[in-house]
Structures are given as C-alpha cells and as structure tokens.
Amino acid sequence: MTVRKAQRDNALNTITQDMQANKKLELTAQAQAPKTQIPEIPPVVDTVDISPDAREKTDVFHKMLEEMRSEMQALREGLKQAREAGEGAASAWKEKILCLQIAMRIMSGDTVPLEDHRYLRERDAELYSRAIQLRIEKEDPKEYDRLSEDEESSNDITISADGSATAIVLEAQADNAFRAD
Question: pTM for the whole thing?
Fold first, then answer.
C-alpha cells in the first residue's frame, strides 16, 4: 500500500509541477506579447447651431422671466405683510401680482382675454409692452379665463398667441339683440 501511495503522491507532485510550469510560461508569454490597445471611441454628440439673434432673444426672455418670478415672490411676501398691516395695502399688492400673472401668460404665448390685456396696459404699461415684445409663438397655446375683475364686457374677447382677436358673443346677449329687432 505504501508503494501505491508513494506512486500516487509522486504523480500528483509531477502534475502540480507541470501546471505551475505552464502557468509561468503563460505569464511570460503575456508579458512578452505586444500589447495592442483598443482606441477609445469618442461619444457621439449632436450639436445645434443657434443664430446669435435667436440666442440673444432667448437669453433676454429667460432673464425677464426669471426677474418676473423673483418679483412675483417678493410681491407675495409683500402681500403677506400687507395683509397683516391692513386691507388697503393688500389690494395694491394683489394688483401687482395680478399684473405679473397676466404678463407671464402673454409672454408664454398663451391665449389671454382682451380684458386682461387692457387691465395690464392700464395698470402697468411698461410691463405690458415688455410682455408683448417678449411673447413667444406656441403651436398649441393654452387658453386662459379672465383674471382681472374690472368692468364686465358685453363680449368675451380673447387675444391669441398670434395676436388675432376673437369675439364670442354670449348666447343670452344674442337672444336679447334678436328679440329687440
């Protein structure tokens, strides 16, 4: 039995030595082989060229929008303080906030009722002119209801993003006019 055990141990040692020798040869071959590196492929990037005029108008629009947002936040804070102070001061703050909301709707290219245009023009002509100048075109403008609560109009008139005015005669008013004839 011991002879067999010795033969077996001897065979295992020979196999182990062969394996270690093969491993050393592989490592040596890898070290001596010329290293070929795969070049890095740069990522594909799409670029868009924007004309300087369009970039300037966009920058002005975003700057104005950010100013209006910060002004709106300041007005909200002022309104909060005015409510604490009294009702007279609060109404002035409410008017300013309403003007800014109307101006932001106009600038965003949405459809705004003519009464809101008038309200803004009468209360803050400078803000109205800036909003009209910075108005952007939209494919599908959102149509807003009237924000201002001034005098009631006989027609519901809105101004769309392209500047065209549309009058929708209320059904009751049309019936009254028809009966008068």
Answer: 0.45
